[in-house]
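#structure-requests
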Amino acid sequence: MSGLAVAFGDSGRNEINAIMRKIAHRGPYTSGVYENGRIIMAQNYLQADGTTADGSNIPVRSSHNTDLAICYDGQIGNWPELTQRYDIPDGAYKEERLLLALYEKYGLDMLRHLNDAIFTFVISDGKDLFAARDLLGIKTMFYGRKDDTLYLASELKAILAVTDEVYEFPNGHYLDQSERFTRFAGLPQSPPRFWDYDVEKMAADIREIIERSFRNRIDFSVPTGGLLSGGMDSSVINYLASKAYKKKHGQTARLKTFALGVGESSDILSARIMAEHIDSEHHELLVDLKQILEVLPEVIYYLESFDPSLVRSAVSNYLISRYARDHGIQILLSGEGGDEIFCGYKYLENYPADELFAKQMECLGFLHNNASLRLDRMNMCNSVRVVAPLISGELLQYAMSIPPQYKQKPEGSGKMEKWIFRKAYEALLPESILWRGKQEFSQGSGSAGVLPAHFEKQFSDQELTEAQARYPIIRSKEELYYFNVFTEHFGTDHTVATVGQWISL
């Protein structure tokens, strides 16, 4: 996880420097700038990115063609297989070197090799330009134009340092020097063939894929901790992490885990159970409404959104990430992705099995300018790298082939969400964790309970009506407050169109 800034055209260094100042938090450890022909490329890194302190080789250049450079932010899940296949030596910047090798061998067709990766990158030799963003848009990128120059950067605020004409780089697309976007991947429109798998085999396959994804992404080479809400997703990841941590450091070693609650919330209580189960060194951060309100403007600035559901969960994520950083953590493990992959959201219970696949694809389509922002921004603004092993191309592909009745399993008058995922870890997690009902992070941590009620008192009905007349996108008094903070930082022109809104408040 890092920050990138690129100018393609007739720009000078001053514009790139202004952009990089806005995203300095994404890589305070080391940085560099590369200029060649029509291109200026800048990159910064965290220490946890596996970098070196010497910025003279940043952005990374090809060993075969020193004119060819890459700016990159992301994570490649199947890098062990690819680096072996293309003979990429181990060491710093191995993923950047792998991407350059793929580009030199396949050109634009390199993207077909990245079906288990989240990424944004820009590759250039000073004459040609190639930029791309992953299918789901887990990694963020924005672009804008000023005079005859195209700018690309990791965050909205960075482009605004140069021009008000700012847009979201579309997910699943690439851009070439003609400055035309081309879609290279899309979500399927119809379900793959559902196989009538044996339940035990499906459960075993899920465990195997997730464990492989974890091994390929985590090595504990830098101080690593786990975000532990006590929900199913974070419990599985921290169970695997604790087991791997003890294997590497000895059975008495204890993984650091972190939980946040507005008082003794349900997340706090469940996380305690799970922390005891995995024998972690558990840390709790209990906050109140006052502490949440104090950081809200900063959260919205870094998040670059005013969606209430997202802001509520983001403020919890921001506070616990900052708390973990203060405890020396450089990498945080997250259970993000499980709800999208295994149909975990409660609203999906309202749809029959034959509509579930389409609704799951719709849910995945929300990620690029909604939930993915929280995953990236609320950790990066604290200069912490986040790793989410459940966001795996292999796991998603497998889960799409599981019949819907195993993901949302009818039980009595309702349905048990993520049933097959729960079944896979039935023998490994406490029963109270295993069958705990789905709660969004903001609900479990308690922030969803206090924020809407607070803002209901801050605005009159007339103030809301007048705001909605000007900006119909505003749906509540809570969202009105977030919108006001957002527009104070970013204006109301092109920026508002970059904000995704969840289906409900």
